[in-house]
Design brief:
With about 230 residues, the protein is an alpha+beta fold. The relative contact order is 0.13. Helix content is about 20%, strand content about 40%. It has a four-stranded antiparallel beta sheet with strand order 3-4-5-6, covered by helices on one side.
Length: about 230
């Protein structure tokens, strides 16, 4: 059976350590708006409607503010029903940024700051079949050849973080706790409240242990995660 594009994408990440979806767009922003690029065109969001970003930029003097402004970069996508979601990254170091998530529906904007996930990269997303939940896969580089992932699920109606639990409990908690413990090699919705995640089938999650796991065939195990 041919692997899904999601699997191919994540295998490429773990084998090359390459970071995708983090192209800097700072130079395309206007003096007072953030630009989100979508397949259907560009969406301009006034900074005054992004209070977290506005407060961050206001903490610098004019010259430093311009430097930080040029480091702001974005990713954006639309849901099946046309709701726009954006990942606005700021306070960026070497590939590492703070995340401000944006939801735009009927020209109304809502934001969600995720300080617990500072220093991570946005990798991919998947909506539940009824679009009640949005699964986000975040990642962190370890060296040049390994990306560990973290699962974050949002409630789309409240635009808040959803609870996720599963069995075995310890591994499931690691997948969502913010520890970036292991690579998540595939992620799919099985129904409106159940996610299926493929993770390395090894007890040794050290850098050396995962290197050995990869050399020995990259066998995986499946986690079933319930979202509420």
């Amino acid at each position: 059976m041919k692997p899904s594009p999601f699997v191919v994408f994540l295998l490429l990440l773990i084998t090359t350590g390459t970071v995708y979806g983090c192209q800097s767009l700072g130079s395309s922003h206007t003096a007072s708006s953030v630009e989100l690029s979508l397949d259907t065109g560009t969406l301009s969001i006034p900074v005054k409607e992004l209070p977290e970003l506005e407060d961050f930029l206001a903490s610098f003097d004019s010259s430093e503010r311009q430097i930080e402004w040029e480091r702001v970069n974005t990713s954006a996508f639309s849901s099946p029903t046309g709701v726009v979601y954006g990942d606005i990254r700021y306070s960026c170091g070497t590939k590492l940024c703070d995340h401000l998530w944006l939801q735009t529906k009927e020209e109304q904007h809502r934001t969600l700051s995720l300080p617990a996930y500072d220093g991570s990269i946005f990798v991919s997303h998947a909506f539940s079949p009824n679009e009640t939940y949005l699964a986000l896969l975040m990642g962190r580089n370890e060296g040049a050849e390994l990306v560990r992932h973290q699962l974050l699920v949002l409630r789309t109606d409240e635009f808040s973080v959803a609870a996720v639990h599963g069995e075995p409990a310890t591994i499931s908690e690691q997948a969502v706790s913010g520890d970036f413990a292991f690579p998540i090699l595939d992620l799919q919705w099985k129904d409106d409240q159940t996610l299926e995640a493929a993770v390395p089938d090894t007890a040794d999650l050290s850098y050396e242990g995962l290197q050995q796991w990869r050399e020995q065939g990259s066998k995986t195990r499946t986690l079933l995660l319930q979202v509420s």
